[in-house]
Amino acid sequence: MRIISGQYKSRKIVAPKNLPVRPTTDMAKESLFNIINNNYYFDDVSVLDLFAGTGNISYEFASRGTENITCVDQDFGCIKFINQTAEKFNMPINTIKSDVFKYLEKASGNYDIIFADPPYNFSDDQFSKIPELIFANNLLSESGLLIIEHSKHTNLEDQPYYSYTKSYGGNAFSFFEILEE
């Protein structure tokens, strides 16, 4: 995987092979960040990266100037790798080793962008629990965006606060936001 843009543009990051991850493809990541770039100033946003895996998405935010990034993953190896990479590049990334659902049940704070990349084999109930907990606990700012990455075969259109979906190859990103009445 590589960082697409910003201070660390073109840097390759090689994750250990034993991590239980499926990093977002460079093509999908580049398209996603083009959408985000049109709506936010990276140095002004706070980011919550759920099911962070290798930290791929967080590194991209940090490279583009985001100073407030929190990664949550339950795998110790993933958290260790993110911490090592963040330290190597002097990136402002905080990590939390936790089951994402347990974290969301107790979390407080307000984020401009929440990115979730759960396993593609999640059930519909597991997928729906993500926006349910985020919006119930007011974790997203009024002008914020929740982005859930999933297989193009998963449909999240019936979820509350759903806005739209963009597909790239086998990947899809569903966007959720607080829409003004």
Automatic annotation (TrEMBL):
SUPFAM superfamilies: S-adenosyl-L-methionine-dependent methyltransferases. The keyword Transmembrane does not apply. GO terms for biological process: rRNA methylation. PROSITE patterns: N6_MTASE (PS00092). Transmembrane segments: none annotated. The keyword Heme does not apply. GO terms for molecular function: methyltransferase activity; nucleic acid binding. InterPro entries: DNA_methylase_N6_adenine_CS, RNA_MeTrfase_RsmD, SAM-dependent_MTases_sf. Keywords: Methyltransferase, Transferase. NCBIfam families: 16S rRNA (guanine(966)-N(2))-methyltransferase RsmD (TIGR00095). This is Methyltransferase. It comes from Neotamlana nanhaiensis.
